[in-house]
Amino acid sequence: MKIAIVGAGISGLGCAYALSKLDNCEVTIYEGGNHIGGHSNTVDLTLDTPSGKVSHGVDTGFLVFNQRTYPRLIRLFHEIDVEIAKSDMSFSVSIPKQNGDVLEWSGTSIDSLFAQRKNILSPSFLRMVKDIIRFNRICTKLAADKRLDEIDLTVGEFIKKHRFSQEFQDWYFLPMVGAIWSCPVSQMLAFPIATMIRFCFNHGLIQIADRPQWLTVQGGSREYVKKLCAHIEQNGGSFIREHVTSVSRNANQVNINTAHGTISYDHVVMACHSDQALDVLKDPSAEENNILGSVKYQDNRAVLHTDSSLLPSEKKCWAAWNYASTQSENLQDQEVCVNYLINQLQPLPESWANQPVIVSLNPVVEPKAETIHADIQYAHPVFDQAAILAQQNLSLIQGLRNTWYCGAWTGYGFHEDGLRSGELVAEAIQEILRSPRKTPISA
C-alpha cells in the first residue's frame, strides 16, 4: 500500500516511522519547508570565546519533555537511541506596575521570590503569593479527587467564582498560561478550566512535591530528527522536498500534486496544521471545511540572540522561562513574550558559561541588532471552544476518502500530542491493512 504523508514534523515523522516498519507499506513524506522536523528546529550558533570561535546547536522551538507526560516520546527516543540530558522549567515574571515600578520575581526559591526585598512587606505581592497557594491547593484537590469532569467553567469564570485577586491574575496566572500555550492570554480565559487543571496537574505545575524531572535532547532536537529520518529511510521510506500544491481524491486513490507533477497513493495522512490541510484539499467536504476551519492559529516570532538586557534586571530572577511585559494594564490583549534562557534549558559549551543565550518569543523590547543570530516565525494552535469542538468531531472525517489527519492541534499542542496523533493514525491504517473491507477506524 502506498501512503503519502504531508508534513515532516513530529506527527508526520512519528506516523511514517510506525508505518515504515510494516512489510506492506510504502511511505513517502512530503515537506516543502526549509527543514525537516517542524518545531524541532535547531540552529547553529557561533560565539567568540577566549579560546576562539565556538559553534553549537541551539533549539528555537521544541525544547523540553519529561518521562511522566511524554511516554510515547520517551519510548521513541529509547527505540532510536536518542541521548537526553536534564533540563529546567523555572519561571520568572518581569512586569511594570501602575506606579511606574517594575515588579520582578521568580519561583526558583524563596530568595528569588523576594528578590525585590520590598515585596516582603508589600500587601499586593503577598496577596498574589497567598492566591497562588490557594489556587494550587484547590486545583490539586479537584484533580486528585477526579472531579474535573463535574466542572463546566472557563478559566475566566473559575477565577471569578473563586475570587482570585487581580495581582494573582496579572502577575502570575496570565503570564504562566500565556507562556505555556504561546498565545495571548485573553484566548486562554475562554479555555475550559477542567482541561487546564488536568494539564497543569499532570505536568507538576500546581504542586510543590512530585514534580517531574524535565529533559532535553543532547545536542539539540535535530539529533532525534536525524535518527528518526534514518530509520524511516532504512525501512524503505522516502522524502520529497516539495510543497504540495493540492490533494485530490476519488473513490480508489489520492493524488498528490506538486509543481513537478502528480503521484497517486492509496492513502494520504495530512500531518500538518489543520488550516494548511484545508488549503490543499481540492474538494473538501462540508464537515472537513467545518472541522479543519475551526482551529485558529497564533503567529509567534522567535528570535535567537545574546542580549542579556532582555532578562530581568534582578539577576536572582533569571530563570529558564522569563515572562516580560512593557505594560501594566490590558495584559489580556497583549502578545505573550517569553525570554527562554537556553543556558538553563540545554547543555551548552562550557566556554559559553558567561554568555547568556536567549530565544525570545515575541520580544516586547527588540534585542540589539548585533546580537541577533536567527529570526524565525512559528504558528501555534489557539485552543478556544471552537478548537476543542473540532477535536471532538475529528472522528467524523478521520479516514474517510482515504484521508487521515494528525498533528499537535488534535491535543494540547505539544510534542507528545503530535506524536500520539501520528501513531494513532498509523495504528488505524494498520487495522485497515489487516481487514481492508472494514470501515475506517477513528484515530
List keywords for this structure.
about 450 residues; alpha/beta; FAD/NAD(P)-binding domain; 2 domains; 7-stranded mixed beta sheet; 5-stranded parallel beta sheet; 20 strands; globular; disordered C terminus; FAD/NAD-bd_sf; oxidoreductase activity; Zeta_carotene_desat/Oxidored; Amino_oxidase
Q: Which spans of ≥5 residues are poorly predicted at pLDDT below 50?
A: 439-443
- In round numbers, the mean pLDDT is 92
The assigned structural class equals: alpha/beta
Q: Radius of gyration over alpha carbons?
A: 23 Å
Shape: globular
CATH-derived architecture of the largest domain: 3-Layer(bba) Sandwich
CATH C-level class of the largest domain is Alpha Beta
Order of strands, widest sheet? 8-7-16-17-18-15-19
Strand content is 15-25%
Helical proportion, percent range: 25-40%
Task: Compute the number of strand runs.
Answer: 20
CATH superfamily of the largest domain, by name, is FAD/NAD(P)-binding domain
Layout of strands and helices, then pairs:
Layout (H helix, E strand, L loop, with lengths): L1 E5 L3 H11 L5 E5 L11 E8 L2 E8 L5 E2 L4 H9 L4 E3 L4 E6 L5 E5 L3 H4 L9 H22 L10 H7 L4 H16 L3 H4 L4 H10 L11 E4 L4 H13 L3 E3 L5 E4 L4 E5 L2 E5 L1 E4 L3 H7 L5 H7 L3 E10 L15 E4 L13 E4 H4 L12 E4 L10 E11 L2 H9 L9 E3 L9 H20 L9
Parallel strand pairs: 1-2, 1-14, 2-10, 7-16, 14-20
Antiparallel strand pairs: 3-4, 5-9, 6-9, 7-8, 11-12, 12-13, 15-18, 15-19, 16-17, 17-18
Helix pairs in contact: 1-9, 1-14, 4-6
